[in-house]
Automatic annotation (TrEMBL):
The keyword Acetylation does not apply. It holds the Pfam family Acyl_transf_1. This is Acyltransferase domain-containing protein. Keywords: Acyltransferase, Phosphopantetheine, Phosphoprotein, Transferase.
Amino acid sequence: MEPTRTAPYLLLWSAPDENRESRRRYAMRRYLTLDDAPGRLPRAVRLVADRRGTGAVRGAAVAGTVDEAVGALSGGHPPRPPRHRPVVLLFPGQGTQHLGMATGLYGYEPLFTRALDQVFAALGPEGHRLRDEWLSGHPDVPLDDATRAQPLLFGIGYALGRMVLGWGVTPAALLGHSVGELVAATVAGVFTLPDAVRVLRDRVDAAVATGPGGMLAVAASVDELAGYLPTGGQVAVAAVNAPRQTLLAGPDPQLREVEEKLRADGLTCRRAAARQAFHSPVMNRAAERGRDLVAAVRPGAPAWPLYSGYTGGPLDAARAVRPEFWARQLADPVLFWPALDALLATGDHLLLEAGPGQGLTAIARQHRAVRSGASTAVPLLPARPGPPEHDRRTLLTAAGQLWTEGHALEPPAPDPLCP
């Protein structure tokens, strides 16, 4: 389908110094208020895009109406030198999915739409059905099931990642959570898109075959939970998301027993949106089954630095090409917080979450490097379901943040950002 630009719009501008930036905004407001013909806001966006320059003082505003644009341009906008912090792409995994996620970008954001269509095409006939269910908001199978959540999270994350690259942004690193690590690896070139989709489909089939299971988020550290997880049991730590945010996983009956004990002892628990026990011993056989397929597609070295939730740090080229590493991801725990901590220890960054829910953004904002303002976490999608405009505003706000940080947003950026 051919993407179509509609409101809201993103205005980007710059000037060599504070005085000229102020005059620039005044001229933009005057243009908007004097021209009362229909379509003046889209024309203003095109005009600003043509003359935005690359000055040291930068501004950005998202507006859906002329009045909103004038109000944004009338604000203080205290000038700040661009910080030029390197960009890191974060890709979320199972549990962040929700009905309508990112549908507001499909048919609106050209780069996103084209990349997601490539994923649906790689999935074959089931990809077309998946797209129709996703757009309708009425999946034939519950969205939390691996057959729906996994391919949609992969496709949306991949499309967002390719879109940011298409804006001219070169990532300093990529970090994914669970299926998000497969997305990161594909964006970084470890897998081709067709091969990644083959691996994904095999993982989904293997996970579904393990039977009903679930995942449980607990507000406690790994050490605090040790006594609740008997040695050799099927319930295990599935993810370390933050120092006191741990995810457990296992078969339904056993996980329910653990949950009851935790609640009885006053620990806060919440079921994650999953119908399979990812990253638990339940998946051991499924992981063994997937090794041959990964070996057949021959993963390569990443084009950009990858941080892994399975190593808790950087992923070197030697490990990135090993089939065992990728096959074990179904069963091994996700060490997201250690990986994030290792990444942020290398310097200040602008973290872009490329997926629904803002879960990784919320986790990153707990880190001392983000709390201090040295690094910043910015989502590309809203935290919860809403109308299509919410998807678009969140995306454009993130693009504006990239611009004011000092990133060039070189062509083909005018295509996704301007009508």
